[in-house]
What does this fold into?
Amino acid sequence: MKTLIKNVNALLPDGTTPVTNIMIEGDRIEAVGEVPEGYQADKVIDGKDHLAAPGLVNAHTHASMTLLRCYADDMVLMDWLNNKIWPTEAKMNDDDIYWGAMLAAAEMIRTGTTAFADMYGPYMDKVAEVTIDSGLRGVLSRGLIGVAPDSEEKLAENIALYKDFHGAGDGRVTVMFAPHALYTCPPDYLKKVSKAAGEYKAEIHIHMSETQGEVENCLKEYGKRPFAHVEATGIFEHGTLAAHCVHLDDEDIAIIKKHGIRVAHNPGSNMKLASGVAPVPRLLKEGVCVSLGTDGASSNNNLDMLEEVQLAALLHKADTLDPLAVTAAEAVKMGTEYGAQAVGLKDAGKLAAGAQADIVLYDMKNTMWCPRHNLVSLLAYSARSSSVDTVLVAGRVLMENHELKTLDEERILFETQRCADRLTK
It folds into this structure.
Protein backbone atom coordinates (compact mmCIF):
# COMPACT_ATOMS: atom_id res chain seq x y z
CA MET A 1 0.00 0.00 0.00
CA LYS A 2 1.18 3.52 -0.83
CA THR A 3 0.33 6.49 1.36
CA LEU A 4 1.05 10.13 0.58
CA ILE A 5 1.18 12.83 3.26
CA LYS A 6 1.11 16.01 1.20
CA ASN A 7 1.95 19.66 1.88
CA VAL A 8 3.09 19.02 5.45
CA ASN A 9 5.74 20.74 7.56
CA ALA A 10 8.12 17.82 8.16
CA LEU A 11 10.69 17.71 10.97
CA LEU A 12 13.72 16.39 9.09
CA PRO A 13 16.86 14.85 10.64
CA ASP A 14 18.77 18.14 10.25
CA GLY A 15 16.18 19.95 12.39
CA THR A 16 14.55 21.91 9.58
CA THR A 17 10.78 21.88 9.06
CA PRO A 18 10.05 22.64 5.39
CA VAL A 19 6.69 22.19 3.72
CA THR A 20 7.12 18.98 1.75
CA ASN A 21 5.59 15.59 1.00
CA ILE A 22 6.15 12.19 2.60
CA MET A 23 5.70 9.14 0.40
CA ILE A 24 5.20 5.81 2.17
CA GLU A 25 5.27 2.35 0.63
CA GLY A 26 4.37 -0.55 2.88
CA ASP A 27 5.98 0.02 6.27
CA ARG A 28 8.76 2.35 5.07
CA ILE A 29 9.20 5.95 4.06
CA GLU A 30 9.84 5.77 0.34
CA ALA A 31 10.87 9.40 -0.09
CA VAL A 32 10.56 12.90 1.36
CA GLY A 33 10.27 15.73 -1.17
CA GLU A 34 8.66 16.46 -4.50
CA VAL A 35 6.05 13.96 -5.64
CA PRO A 36 7.10 12.41 -8.97
CA GLU A 37 4.81 12.99 -11.93
CA GLY A 38 2.28 10.20 -12.23
CA TYR A 39 2.75 9.04 -8.62
CA GLN A 40 -0.32 7.10 -7.47
CA ALA A 41 -1.12 6.69 -3.78
CA ASP A 42 -3.74 4.39 -2.29
CA LYS A 43 -4.33 6.90 0.52
CA VAL A 44 -3.70 10.63 0.62
CA ILE A 45 -3.48 12.59 3.89
CA ASP A 46 -3.67 16.38 3.66
CA GLY A 47 -0.86 17.70 5.86
CA LYS A 48 -1.62 21.41 5.50
CA ASP A 49 -1.18 23.25 8.83
CA HIS A 50 0.28 20.09 10.40
CA LEU A 51 3.75 19.24 11.64
CA ALA A 52 4.92 15.72 10.79
CA ALA A 53 7.47 14.39 13.26
CA PRO A 54 8.94 10.98 14.04
CA GLY A 55 6.81 9.01 16.48
CA LEU A 56 7.70 9.43 20.15
CA VAL A 57 9.46 6.49 21.81
CA ASN A 58 8.75 5.70 25.46
CA ALA A 59 12.04 4.06 26.41
CA HIS A 60 11.00 2.96 29.89
CA THR A 61 7.55 2.21 31.20
CA HIS A 62 5.41 -0.36 33.00
CA ALA A 63 2.33 -0.31 30.79
CA SER A 64 -0.20 -2.15 32.94
CA MET A 65 0.53 0.11 35.90
CA THR A 66 -2.11 2.35 34.36
CA LEU A 67 -4.40 0.39 36.69
CA LEU A 68 -2.65 2.06 39.64
CA ARG A 69 -2.68 5.62 38.32
CA CYS A 70 -3.13 7.99 41.31
CA TYR A 71 -3.71 5.03 43.64
CA ALA A 72 -0.71 5.77 45.88
CA ASP A 73 0.89 9.19 45.56
CA ASP A 74 3.28 11.43 47.50
CA MET A 75 5.34 8.62 49.04
CA VAL A 76 9.04 7.72 49.33
CA LEU A 77 10.04 5.21 46.62
CA MET A 78 10.72 2.12 48.76
CA ASP A 79 7.72 2.77 51.02
CA TRP A 80 5.61 3.22 47.89
CA LEU A 81 6.89 -0.03 46.40
CA ASN A 82 6.87 -2.22 49.51
CA ASN A 83 3.61 -1.12 51.07
CA LYS A 84 1.40 -0.10 48.16
CA ILE A 85 2.55 -1.12 44.69
CA TRP A 86 4.04 -4.60 45.12
CA PRO A 87 1.20 -5.92 47.34
CA THR A 88 -1.40 -4.74 44.82
CA GLU A 89 0.55 -6.05 41.85
CA ALA A 90 0.68 -9.46 43.53
CA LYS A 91 -3.10 -9.66 43.06
CA MET A 92 -3.03 -8.93 39.32
CA ASN A 93 -4.23 -11.64 36.96
CA ASP A 94 -3.94 -11.97 33.20
CA ASP A 95 -7.16 -10.01 32.67
CA ASP A 96 -5.75 -7.08 34.66
CA ILE A 97 -2.50 -7.07 32.73
CA TYR A 98 -4.36 -7.19 29.42
CA TRP A 99 -6.73 -4.31 30.10
CA GLY A 100 -4.07 -2.22 31.84
CA ALA A 101 -1.92 -2.57 28.75
CA MET A 102 -4.91 -1.77 26.52
CA LEU A 103 -5.45 1.48 28.41
CA ALA A 104 -1.75 2.25 28.04
CA ALA A 105 -1.88 1.57 24.30
CA ALA A 106 -4.84 3.90 23.82
CA GLU A 107 -3.17 6.62 25.86
CA MET A 108 0.13 6.26 24.02
CA ILE A 109 -1.46 6.42 20.57
CA ARG A 110 -3.51 9.47 21.59
CA THR A 111 -0.36 11.24 22.81
CA GLY A 112 1.86 10.42 19.83
CA THR A 113 3.89 7.48 21.09
CA THR A 114 4.60 4.85 18.46
CA ALA A 115 7.00 2.54 20.35
CA PHE A 116 7.48 1.64 24.01
CA ALA A 117 9.88 -0.41 26.13
CA ASP A 118 7.88 -2.24 28.79
CA MET A 119 9.22 -4.07 31.83
CA TYR A 120 6.45 -5.77 33.78
CA GLY A 121 4.88 -9.11 34.56
CA PRO A 122 3.60 -11.70 34.91
CA TYR A 123 1.44 -12.41 31.86
CA MET A 124 3.60 -10.38 29.49
CA ASP A 125 2.14 -12.48 26.69
CA LYS A 126 -0.99 -10.35 27.15
CA VAL A 127 1.03 -7.17 26.64
CA ALA A 128 2.46 -8.73 23.49
CA GLU A 129 -1.08 -9.42 22.26
CA VAL A 130 -2.06 -5.82 22.95
CA THR A 131 1.02 -4.58 21.08
CA ILE A 132 0.17 -6.68 18.05
CA ASP A 133 -3.54 -5.77 18.05
CA SER A 134 -3.03 -2.05 18.66
CA GLY A 135 -0.42 -1.68 15.93
CA LEU A 136 2.23 -0.19 18.22
CA ARG A 137 5.85 -1.28 18.50
CA GLY A 138 6.70 -2.95 21.80
CA VAL A 139 10.09 -3.79 23.29
CA LEU A 140 8.86 -6.14 25.98
CA SER A 141 10.43 -7.93 28.92
CA ARG A 142 9.29 -9.89 31.94
CA GLY A 143 10.41 -8.06 35.08
CA LEU A 144 12.67 -10.43 37.02
CA ILE A 145 12.81 -10.36 40.82
CA GLY A 146 15.72 -12.54 41.90
CA VAL A 147 14.90 -12.51 45.61
CA ALA A 148 11.41 -13.94 44.99
CA PRO A 149 10.87 -17.64 45.79
CA ASP A 150 9.73 -18.20 42.18
CA SER A 151 12.68 -16.39 40.60
CA GLU A 152 13.53 -19.35 38.37
CA GLU A 153 9.96 -19.48 37.08
CA LYS A 154 10.12 -15.76 36.27
CA LEU A 155 13.27 -16.29 34.24
CA ALA A 156 11.58 -19.19 32.43
CA GLU A 157 8.66 -16.86 31.64
CA ASN A 158 11.03 -14.32 30.09
CA ILE A 159 12.58 -17.08 27.98
CA ALA A 160 9.10 -18.24 26.89
CA LEU A 161 8.18 -14.64 26.02
CA TYR A 162 11.27 -14.42 23.83
CA LYS A 163 10.56 -17.72 22.09
CA ASP A 164 6.89 -16.95 21.50
CA PHE A 165 6.93 -13.26 20.59
CA HIS A 166 10.37 -11.98 19.57
CA GLY A 167 9.84 -10.67 16.03
CA ALA A 168 6.05 -11.10 16.18
CA GLY A 169 3.61 -8.60 14.72
CA ASP A 170 5.62 -8.31 11.48
CA GLY A 171 8.68 -7.46 13.54
CA ARG A 172 6.98 -4.87 15.74
CA VAL A 173 7.59 -6.91 18.91
CA THR A 174 11.10 -7.18 20.36
CA VAL A 175 11.86 -9.07 23.56
CA MET A 176 14.57 -8.19 26.09
CA PHE A 177 15.50 -9.75 29.45
CA ALA A 178 14.71 -7.55 32.45
CA PRO A 179 16.40 -8.08 35.80
CA HIS A 180 14.48 -5.48 37.81
CA ALA A 181 17.39 -3.95 39.74
CA LEU A 182 20.46 -4.92 41.70
CA TYR A 183 18.56 -4.61 45.00
CA THR A 184 16.00 -7.21 43.87
CA CYS A 185 18.44 -9.44 41.96
CA PRO A 186 21.44 -10.93 43.82
CA PRO A 187 24.70 -11.33 41.86
CA ASP A 188 24.24 -15.06 41.18
CA TYR A 189 20.79 -14.39 39.73
CA LEU A 190 22.12 -11.58 37.54
CA LYS A 191 24.70 -14.04 36.21
CA LYS A 192 21.91 -16.50 35.34
CA VAL A 193 20.02 -13.76 33.50
CA SER A 194 23.20 -12.78 31.67
CA LYS A 195 23.75 -16.39 30.59
CA ALA A 196 20.18 -16.68 29.31
CA ALA A 197 20.41 -13.39 27.43
CA GLY A 198 23.63 -14.60 25.81
CA GLU A 199 22.04 -17.86 24.73
CA TYR A 200 19.18 -16.07 22.98
CA LYS A 201 21.21 -13.07 21.80
CA ALA A 202 18.77 -10.80 23.64
CA GLU A 203 19.45 -7.41 25.19
CA ILE A 204 18.90 -6.22 28.77
CA HIS A 205 16.49 -3.70 30.33
CA ILE A 206 17.30 -2.83 33.96
CA HIS A 207 16.77 -0.08 36.56
CA MET A 208 20.11 1.48 37.58
CA SER A 209 21.09 4.04 40.22
CA GLU A 210 17.62 5.48 40.63
CA THR A 211 18.06 6.69 44.23
CA GLN A 212 20.89 7.74 46.49
CA GLY A 213 19.85 4.99 48.91
CA GLU A 214 20.35 2.37 46.20
CA VAL A 215 23.92 3.56 45.70
CA GLU A 216 24.68 3.68 49.44
CA ASN A 217 23.25 0.22 50.07
CA CYS A 218 25.23 -1.25 47.18
CA LEU A 219 28.45 0.22 48.55
CA LYS A 220 27.63 -1.12 51.99
CA GLU A 221 26.71 -4.63 50.83
CA TYR A 222 29.13 -5.20 47.94
CA GLY A 223 31.85 -2.57 48.35
CA LYS A 224 31.15 -1.24 44.87
CA ARG A 225 28.90 1.31 43.24
CA PRO A 226 25.94 -0.09 41.25
CA PHE A 227 27.48 0.03 37.78
CA ALA A 228 30.75 -1.62 38.87
CA HIS A 229 28.80 -4.25 40.81
CA VAL A 230 26.47 -5.13 37.94
CA GLU A 231 29.30 -5.02 35.39
CA ALA A 232 31.00 -7.89 37.26
CA THR A 233 27.97 -10.14 36.64
CA GLY A 234 28.24 -9.89 32.85
CA ILE A 235 24.86 -8.21 32.38
CA PHE A 236 26.33 -5.34 30.36
CA GLU A 237 27.84 -7.66 27.74
CA HIS A 238 24.60 -8.04 25.79
CA GLY A 239 23.52 -4.49 24.97
CA THR A 240 21.80 -2.65 27.80
CA LEU A 241 18.96 -0.18 28.27
CA ALA A 242 19.44 1.31 31.74
CA ALA A 243 16.53 3.19 33.26
CA HIS A 244 16.96 6.29 35.45
CA CYS A 245 20.76 6.56 35.99
CA VAL A 246 20.24 9.48 38.35
CA HIS A 247 23.16 9.15 40.78
CA LEU A 248 26.32 8.76 38.72
CA ASP A 249 29.98 9.52 39.28
CA ASP A 250 32.97 9.44 36.92
CA GLU A 251 33.42 5.67 37.34
CA ASP A 252 29.76 5.01 36.51
CA ILE A 253 29.88 7.14 33.38
CA ALA A 254 33.10 5.46 32.25
CA ILE A 255 31.36 2.05 32.51
CA ILE A 256 28.31 3.37 30.63
CA LYS A 257 30.56 4.57 27.81
CA LYS A 258 32.68 1.40 27.83
CA HIS A 259 29.69 -0.85 27.22
CA GLY A 260 27.64 1.51 25.06
CA ILE A 261 24.84 1.46 27.62
CA ARG A 262 21.79 3.48 26.54
CA VAL A 263 20.12 5.57 29.23
CA ALA A 264 16.35 6.00 29.66
CA HIS A 265 15.87 9.31 31.46
CA ASN A 266 12.57 9.66 33.35
CA PRO A 267 12.32 13.31 34.43
CA GLY A 268 8.66 13.26 35.48
CA SER A 269 8.96 10.15 37.64
CA ASN A 270 12.30 11.22 39.13
CA MET A 271 10.81 14.56 40.14
CA LYS A 272 7.60 13.09 41.57
CA LEU A 273 9.40 10.42 43.61
CA ALA A 274 12.12 12.92 44.60
CA SER A 275 14.80 10.59 43.27
CA GLY A 276 17.03 13.40 42.04
CA VAL A 277 18.19 14.90 38.75
CA ALA A 278 20.19 12.76 36.33
CA PRO A 279 23.36 14.34 34.83
CA VAL A 280 21.82 14.36 31.36
CA PRO A 281 23.75 17.35 29.93
CA ARG A 282 27.06 15.68 30.76
CA LEU A 283 25.94 12.31 29.37
CA LEU A 284 24.89 13.95 26.11
CA LYS A 285 28.16 15.87 25.83
CA GLU A 286 30.10 12.62 26.34
CA GLY A 287 28.24 10.88 23.55
CA VAL A 288 25.95 8.66 25.60
CA CYS A 289 22.61 7.81 24.00
CA VAL A 290 20.03 9.39 26.33
CA SER A 291 16.37 8.66 25.64
CA LEU A 292 13.19 9.50 27.53
CA GLY A 293 10.63 7.41 29.37
CA THR A 294 7.57 8.04 31.46
CA ASP A 295 8.08 5.17 33.92
CA GLY A 296 4.74 3.71 35.05
CA ALA A 297 1.54 5.74 35.20
CA SER A 298 1.51 5.26 38.97
CA SER A 299 4.68 7.31 39.36
CA ASN A 300 4.21 9.98 36.71
CA ASN A 301 1.05 9.88 36.43
CA ASN A 302 0.55 9.61 32.68
CA LEU A 303 2.20 8.17 29.58
CA ASP A 304 2.47 11.51 27.79
CA MET A 305 5.88 11.51 26.14
CA LEU A 306 5.57 15.05 24.83
CA GLU A 307 5.36 16.13 28.46
CA GLU A 308 8.64 14.28 29.12
CA VAL A 309 10.25 16.14 26.21
CA GLN A 310 9.17 19.42 27.78
CA LEU A 311 10.32 18.40 31.27
CA ALA A 312 13.72 17.32 29.96
CA ALA A 313 14.18 20.65 28.20
CA LEU A 314 13.23 22.62 31.33
CA LEU A 315 14.50 20.57 34.28
CA HIS A 316 18.17 20.65 33.34
CA LYS A 317 18.15 24.38 32.70
CA ALA A 318 16.99 24.94 36.27
CA ASP A 319 19.37 22.34 37.72
CA THR A 320 22.49 23.66 35.98
CA LEU A 321 21.50 27.34 35.73
CA ASP A 322 22.37 27.00 32.05
CA PRO A 323 19.66 27.89 29.50
CA LEU A 324 21.52 25.79 26.91
CA ALA A 325 21.77 22.64 29.05
CA VAL A 326 19.20 20.73 26.96
CA THR A 327 17.89 22.63 23.97
CA ALA A 328 14.48 22.18 22.37
CA ALA A 329 16.02 20.33 19.42
CA GLU A 330 17.99 18.00 21.70
CA ALA A 331 14.96 17.24 23.86
CA VAL A 332 12.86 16.36 20.81
CA LYS A 333 15.63 14.04 19.57
CA MET A 334 15.75 12.39 23.01
CA GLY A 335 12.07 11.62 22.62
CA THR A 336 12.31 10.37 19.03
CA GLU A 337 15.61 9.53 17.33
CA TYR A 338 17.62 8.77 20.47
CA GLY A 339 14.67 6.85 21.88
CA ALA A 340 14.58 4.58 18.84
CA GLN A 341 18.32 3.95 19.20
CA ALA A 342 17.98 3.26 22.91
CA VAL A 343 15.37 0.51 22.52
CA GLY A 344 17.14 -1.07 19.56
CA LEU A 345 15.01 0.24 16.67
CA LYS A 346 17.88 1.03 14.34
CA ASP A 347 15.74 2.06 11.36
CA ALA A 348 13.18 4.23 13.17
CA GLY A 349 13.06 7.69 14.73
CA LYS A 350 13.67 9.75 11.58
CA LEU A 351 11.69 11.14 8.67
CA ALA A 352 14.00 9.94 5.94
CA ALA A 353 13.90 7.58 2.99
CA GLY A 354 14.25 3.97 4.13
CA ALA A 355 13.17 4.62 7.71
CA GLN A 356 10.19 2.96 9.28
CA ALA A 357 7.03 4.97 8.65
CA ASP A 358 6.34 5.78 12.32
CA ILE A 359 4.94 9.28 12.00
CA VAL A 360 2.88 11.67 14.11
CA LEU A 361 0.96 14.62 12.69
CA TYR A 362 0.44 17.55 15.07
CA ASP A 363 -2.45 19.89 14.25
CA MET A 364 -1.11 23.43 14.31
CA LYS A 365 -4.47 25.14 13.80
CA ASN A 366 -4.79 26.34 17.39
CA THR A 367 -3.54 29.08 19.69
CA MET A 368 -0.57 27.20 21.17
CA TRP A 369 1.02 26.96 17.71
CA CYS A 370 0.68 30.65 16.86
CA PRO A 371 2.77 32.51 15.81
CA ARG A 372 4.96 29.92 14.08
CA HIS A 373 8.41 31.36 14.61
CA ASN A 374 10.13 28.02 15.28
CA LEU A 375 8.20 24.76 14.99
CA VAL A 376 10.73 22.71 16.96
CA SER A 377 10.59 25.15 19.86
CA LEU A 378 6.81 25.17 19.67
CA LEU A 379 6.77 21.38 19.89
CA ALA A 380 9.17 21.29 22.83
CA TYR A 381 7.87 24.21 24.88
CA SER A 382 4.36 25.17 23.80
CA ALA A 383 2.46 22.27 22.27
CA ARG A 384 0.41 19.76 24.20
CA SER A 385 -0.36 16.18 23.25
CA SER A 386 -3.91 17.25 22.47
CA SER A 387 -2.38 18.51 19.20
CA VAL A 388 -1.72 14.92 18.12
CA ASP A 389 -4.09 14.40 15.23
CA THR A 390 -2.91 11.39 13.26
CA VAL A 391 -0.54 8.53 14.11
CA LEU A 392 1.04 5.98 11.78
CA VAL A 393 3.18 2.99 12.75
CA ALA A 394 4.86 0.92 10.05
CA GLY A 395 2.77 2.86 7.55
CA ARG A 396 -0.53 1.82 9.16
CA VAL A 397 -2.87 4.53 10.45
CA LEU A 398 -3.60 3.93 14.15
CA MET A 399 -5.39 7.25 14.68
CA GLU A 400 -6.73 9.76 12.18
CA ASN A 401 -8.40 13.08 12.96
CA HIS A 402 -8.28 12.10 16.67
CA GLU A 403 -10.22 8.85 16.02
CA LEU A 404 -8.58 5.60 17.17
CA LYS A 405 -8.65 3.06 14.35
CA THR A 406 -7.41 -0.14 16.02
CA LEU A 407 -8.86 0.05 19.55
CA ASP A 408 -12.32 0.18 21.14
CA GLU A 409 -11.73 3.04 23.57
CA GLU A 410 -15.16 2.90 25.22
CA ARG A 411 -14.74 -0.75 26.15
CA ILE A 412 -11.15 -0.19 27.30
CA LEU A 413 -12.26 2.51 29.75
CA PHE A 414 -15.03 0.27 31.14
CA GLU A 415 -12.89 -2.85 31.54
CA THR A 416 -9.95 -0.96 33.04
CA GLN A 417 -12.12 0.64 35.72
CA ARG A 418 -13.56 -2.79 36.52
CA CYS A 419 -10.09 -4.26 36.99
CA ALA A 420 -8.83 -1.30 39.04
CA ASP A 421 -11.83 -1.46 41.37
CA ARG A 422 -11.26 -5.15 42.03
CA LEU A 423 -7.59 -4.59 42.84
CA THR A 424 -7.91 -1.55 45.10
CA LYS A 425 -11.40 -1.57 46.60
User: Anything to note?
Assistant: The chain is about 40% helix and 20% strand. Residues 56-342 form a domain with the TIM Barrel fold (CATH 3.20.20.140). Residues 94-110 form the longest helix (17 residues).
